[in-house]
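dumping this here before i forget
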Amino acid sequence: DVGDKANDPLRISGKDLKVKVVGEGGNLGMTQLGRIEYALNGGRLNTDFIDNAAGVDCSDHEVNIKILLNEILVNGDLTEKQRNKLLAEMTDGVAKLVLKNNYRQTQAISIAHRDALPRMEEYRRLINSMENAKKLNRKLEFLPSDDEITERKSLGKGLTRPELSVLISYVKGDLKETLNNSTLPDEEHLSNEISEVFPEQIISKYKKELRRHRLRREIISTQVANDMVNHMGITFVERLKQSTGATAASIALAYIIARDVFELEKWWVAIEHLDHKVPSNVQLEMMSELMSLIRRACRWLIRNRRSELNVVENMSLFKEGIRTISACLPEFLTGNSKETYEARFKRYVEQGVPEELSAVVAGSNHLYAALGIIEAQQEGESKLETVASIYYLLGNRLDLTWFGHQINNLTPLTHWQALAREAFREDLDWQQRALTVGLLKLKDKSQSIEERIDQWMHQHTDLVERWKQMLTEFKASEDAEFSMYSVALRELLDLAQSTVHSIPK
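structure:
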């Protein structure tokens, strides 16, 4: 099949390779089918074009730097001798950037491989979507057919690393082109993205010239696409496009806002610094928790602020409030929520994770609510701490946190069930926010938060009891159907609407 008869005596099948890990230092050491066979047999490897990506990346950096410096040279602000000296001085800086890009890309493949089996339907839809758009030849790239995907699922196997390596390359390439053809690179705030691609010597000396770079749009599009796929996964954009109808550019803007207000890069780097200090599965678990936080935040921003995805305005609105809630989160949580948080925090610390990082990751599934809390504060005159306290206490008193956890644990068997699960999450978020706003607007604010919630629950005894009775049935059910969640959320909506309508004018 390879068509290289001279080397036939040396060649073996992938399943016969007994080593644990393969790194392809040269090209075409293995065929793609050989890689897949080896990977399905338990071997660990990527592909040659992933393992050798640093060379191409280094060339890209070199071209971008020389285009910039040559224009400065032509303008007379730099001599050729100075240019050559500067190029030599940037060697280590460029190497650091290249190694970071390649580290992040293989890291993204590791995270994708860890979650490949439960996300097989997402990959099926991604492959079909790209194939229908004539952006991918499935057979040429040896990607599994729909029937083969179904068979893999039945065998408890997801996509292999070599297959994920192909997909991540196609997704990044398509996303770069799509973003470059949009207005996204023209966003003023995104001019900072270009600084991520150049070494410090360039940024410190030629910041103004950098923003006028001839390939500015292409560089920003490439940087945003790489950053988003490396952090959020291969199916992230396609999944949000299908569930929200948003464009890739809008999703990228929502991602940048969520990434920056939740300080994703800061915490991601902190996890990376734990290499060889904590088990790698702990690192991947923590990264997955942060990915879930940002994914939900992106959906919230698209659903609630689709026409207002201005980076600067949203940074101003959310960043400080999120920091405040994050710092005080353990004080806001009560009951089972607090116990679960403390158990997760303790587990991470015992595994060698620093306390500050442990606190953020342990509370990430609660921290997402900060967006709704801050928005709820905009509708009243209460302090942020008061709004947060009511929101989280309501979540505990009505078991909304438990109910949300059940929704998150649902295993969708079809695409439509996956969309339904996301709709359930959004409905629960909206209703909890509506209940919070209703309590904030109650007339008597001299009472403590607990007293105000007690009074509110007494005023709506029938609806509260009906909701609790429904939750009792949920807890008694071993395998609640999707329709049960839909009915339960309708009951919660009645309670939320009753609260809003009962507010004194």
